[in-house]
Design a protein that fits this description.
This protein has about 525 residues and is of the alpha/beta class. It has 14 helices and 20 strands.
């Protein structure tokens, strides 16, 4: 991963391959942002004029490269748009800094070292720039250039893909200041784990299946002092996990339920996280049509987010007990697959009539949620690429939040907005529950088509223990970006919800959520 250093050097004197400065949209054209004073001076105070001549406006994400004048050690200046310039006495938002740093880092692929001279007035700004740069520099290269993942030109395929930016030197930071050092350490840990989640999401399903995902979790547990327990098919049968077994019974790779337990000796609060981990979703017997199954390796994004969050909590030493549950299965059609009309007996004891085998995520989550509730955590949050209906409702860049507690739902929404993850609170209308009534079982796994994302949330609510505070994040939209990259968000797996969950754990540990 891209390295990060905090530097006290001046923008004009630091030796680097490029120097990144900010430019914003002003009332009369682009304006140079704070942090770039030395660079502007090298342009005789005319950097904004030069940029405007080249067509730059300061719009968010806009990147303009130009040769550096004499007086700068770096040979290239990269001006990145910050969006609208703030009013007097106001500062650039953390999200604008994250997005700008991410855009610049991505544009600098193939570069060894870049100095970032963006507006940094406090440690929070330094953390935002660092986080954005480290996330924006991400590239998934494991299967490129003959499989060596190094990005160098290879005679076998000759694609010559560029390696990610190797090093970010953050200017304006204070390497010896405790707050700045802590900000850098948090940014590094968080970005590395978000990028690990992205790697898992992008890994082809012939290499990432329930057993191999569980092995990754086990290895990470050993590295970071996290207790990991894996329930295989025999243990699942013995325990009566009908949802996981029913979804996974058609696949050659059997299902797994993985528990990751991070504990802190001073913890006063506990948080349980449950992730949907369908490592490939064909739809099962209710087969997805062509055009809808090519990216279904991403259907384990919720489990990847939960896994990354628990590891981040351990790396940061958060004073909270965090338990992650990964409900892992492949959903495949075969002679042994669950059929529409079958009835499954869940871990909770409830029976579910399966009307559509492509509504499988709620089945594996139901078992994991029931199990998580047995440990009586202070709160449970499940994360899943659960419904296409949520994408229709909210688009590709934001996730929906449902909960059995309005205050908890509001808190998660505010946290998500704070860390830069677009989201929206959604209801759980009681009238939609009747649509899941079954003449055969306790409940069906499908209900009314309209409001399908809410119906899925209501189904999950049926498996939450009495008195347990619970929220459900449907990340079907933002989990996998099929369009072009933007800001610090790459094409492919995004690591959606990790930053929200980490901040939720921090706030819970601090007692800010009651």
């Amino acid at each position: 991963m891209t390295a990060l250093t905090l530097s006290t050097a001046g923008a004009a004197t630091l030796r680097a391959d490029a120097i990144v400065v900010g430019v914003a949209k002003g009332a009369k054209g682009p304006v140079v942002a704070p942090g770039a004073e030395a660079v502007d001076k090298a342009f005789d105070g005319k950097l904004a004029t030069v940029l405007e001549t080249l067509g730059a406006s300061g719009a968010e994400g806009e990147v303009t490269k130009l040769p550096a004048p004499s007086g700068l050690k770096a040979p290239v200046v990269v001006a990145v748009g910050l969006g609208q310039a703030p009013e007097k006495d106001e500062a650039y938002t953390a999200e604008s800094l994250r997005r700008a740093a991410g855009s610049a880092a991505r544009a600098l692929a193939g570069t060894k070292k870049a100095a970032f001279a963006l507006p940094v007035e406090a440690s929070e700004d330094a953390e935002a720039v660092a986080e954005g740069a480290l996330l924006g520099a991400y590239a998934f290269t494991a299967y490129q250039d003959g499989g060596n993942g190094k990005g160098a030109k290879n005679e076998k395929n000759g694609n010559g893909r560029k390696q990610p930016l190797a090093e970010v030197a953050l200017l304006g930071a204070k390497p010896r200041d405790k707050a700045y050092k802590a900000a850098a350490e948090r940014a590094i840990a968080l970005a590395e784990e978000v990028n690990r989640a992205r790697d898992l999401i992008n890994t082809p399903p012939n290499d990432l299946f329930p057993e191999s995902f569980a092995a990754v979790a086990t290895a990470a547990g050993k590295e970071h002092g996290i207790k990991v327990q894996v329930l295989d098919e025999k243990a699942l049968v013995k325990g009566g996990y009908g949802g996981l077994l029913g979804v996974g019974q058609g696949a050659a790779h059997g299902p797994r339920l993985v528990r990751l337990g991070y504990t802190h000796p001073k913890a006063q609060k506990s948080l349980a996280l449950v992730g949907k981990g369908i490592t490939y979703d064909s739809g099962g017997i209710s087969l997805k049509p062509a055009g809808h199954n090519e990216t279904m390796k991403c259907d384990m994004s919720g489990a990847a987010a939960v896994f990354a969050t628990v590891v981040t909590a351990a790396r940061l030493g958060l004073e909270i007990n965090v338990t992650g549950w990964l409900a892992l299965a492949e959903n495949m059609p075969s002679g042994t697959a669950t059929r529409p009309g079958d009835v499954l007996r869940m871990y909770s004891g409830k029976t579910v009539e399966v009307l559509n085998t492509d509504a499988e995520g709620r089945l594996v989550l139901a078992d994991a949620l029931t199990k998580a509730c047995e440990e009586n955590p202070d709160a449970i949050v499940d994360v899943a690429t659960l419904t296409g209906a949520m994408v229709l409702a909210l688009g590709h860049r934001r996730f929906g939040i449902m909960a059995n507690d309005d205050a908890f739902r509001t808190a998660i929404h505010e946290i998500a907005e704070e860390v830069g993850e677009d989201s929206w609170p959604m209801p759980l209308p009681a009238d939609l529950r009747k649509g899941m009534d079954s003449p055969t079982a306790d409940i069906a796994n499908m209900g009314e088509r309209m409001g399908g994302g809410l119906v899925a949330g209501l189904f999950l609510k049926e498996f939450i223990g009495e008195g347990v505070t619970w929220a459900h994040l449907d990340i079907a939209g933002p989990a996998f970006n099929e369009s072009g990259p933007y800001g610090y968000t790459p094409k492919g797996g995004t690591g959606s919800a990790v930053r929200t969950l980490v901040k939720l754990a921090e706030r819970t540990a601090a007692g800010d959520l009651g």
